[in-house]
Each structure stands twice: as C-alpha cells, then as structure tokens.
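Appendix B, Record 12. Input sequence as logged:
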Amino acid sequence: MTWEQRLETGAGRLGVSLPEGWVPQVARYRDELLRWNARVNLTAITSEAEVAEKHFLDSLAAWPEVKGARSLLDVGAGAGFPGIPLKLAEPGMEVTLVDAVAKKVGFLKHVLAQLGVKGARALHLRVEGDPESEGLPRCERVIARAFTDLDAWLGLAPAYLAEGGRVVAMLGRAPGREELDAVAARHGMCCLSDRRYVLPFSGDPRAVAVFGRA
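Logged structural output:
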C-alpha cells in the first residue's frame, strides 16, 4: 500500500472524505517533518505509515468538529497536529498555532512557508488564559490534542472562545458521557457532543468531545 493509498483507505475507515488537494500538501509536510526530526526532536513517531495514521489521519478525524469555522486556535500544537492538517482541509479558516517550545514553533513557521499556507501563523508562548496580553485572538474553535488533562483544558480554553465558539478536546480513552458532563459543569460548560472512534490501522481508541458555554 502506498502512502497515498494508506491515507485514502484510512480516511474511508474513519468516515471522512479526503479534502481536494490535501494529499500532495501533506506529503510535502511529511517530508519536512521527517527531515527536521532527524536533527530536532519533533515527534517520536518516525515511520511513514505511523505518521500517516497517528498524525495526519488522527488530525483529519476532527474535521467534522471544526468544519465551517472561520477561526481556529491550536494550543500545544507541537509539530502542527491537528492544526495544520485541519487548515489544509479548511483553507478559508484563520489558524493560530501556539507552542511553548521554540524549536517546534521554528518548524511550524518553516512548514507553513514551505507549503505556501496563507491565513495561518505560529507563535512561541505559553497560554495562561489571558488572550489580550498574549496577543491571541478569540476563535470559533479552540482545539488541543493530548495537550493536558481534560479538567485543566476546560479550565483554560474558554478564555480564548469567540461568542458562540466551541472547545474541542481530542482524547485517547475518553471518560463516559456522565463524567464528561460533570467535568464540563465544573467550568460552566456543557458537553455538546462526544464521538468515539478507532484509528484505522492500529485500532488505537480515540475520541473527540465538543464543549460550549452553559
């Protein structure tokens, strides 16, 4: 199976259609990621097959939760997942990528330039719940993948929401709906949806939960 076929097959198993023009862009992204990773520790995942599944397809799995949003903030973006694959799926969406590790932000700026992506920027800072002083926008979607535990995430992320915006949490083994509701309520939020799935080749469990202000 070629890398492109792996993406197509995996997306089909996730129930997501590959966005037009997405595959060649993420192939270039993959090449830059692996080239940089040889000298800068960006990811522990280094095989092309795993990069396809555990970075690109896992990021694309959250596309239904951000589709149609005009702005996205990816906190703890690391090597750009899920923010850059989602930006490539939604070209009109303004995306801000934030990470506290300078070398990762250096990579993000490089890959955005290499791909010619417009309407996206990468910032080196640690988010602390004060968007004005941090120079961060309030966005329609605020997303994180394995950034921190859910309770801490829901204590932080709402400060960055635009009116009517949604917090998106990408999770591994997610708690049950009752616990999601309880965690949300502690922060004046409500759980609007939670969707469980498995990665298409490894079968690793994943979930994506969406929260709004109560």
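The beta strands are 71-75, 94-99, 120-124, 139-145, 161-171, 189-198, 205-213.
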